[in-house]
Amino acid sequence: MRLDKYLKVSRLIKRRTLAKEVAEQGRIEINGKTAKASSVVKAGDELRIRFGQKVVTARVESIRENAKKEEAAMMFTILSEERLAKVEPQFIDDTE
Q1: Rounded to whole angstroms, how far apart are CA atoms 64 and 10?
Q2: pLDDT tens per residue across span 1-18
Q3: How many other CB atoms sit within 10 Å of the CB of residue 59?
Q4: What 3-state class would DSSP assign to 58?
Q5: Where in the numbering of this chain does the RNA-binding S4 domain appear (predicted)?
Q6: What is the DSSP letter of 22?
Q7: Contact, 62 vs 74, CB < 8 A?
């Protein structure tokens, strides 16, 4: 299943268009490799998603085309959630 569709069906990200945008920004990894929205997700894969100052690592447990709210929570297991240190604007090097 495509990554963007999986994120929507599993409710890790609420909308497919938002999942696509997050993937295009390079904020999602599948098994340690940066993923595109069209990347294929399989059961057993490990997803690492960066939401602003938070990074969520989840393992894909199952793939379903449709899922009710109760079923969606069983499609993945959260392995870790970590907060990133806030970077002060004066320390950002935007000369690149």
Answers
A1: 8
A2: 999 999 999 999 999 999
A3: 13
A4: strand
A5: 1-63
A6: H
A7: yes
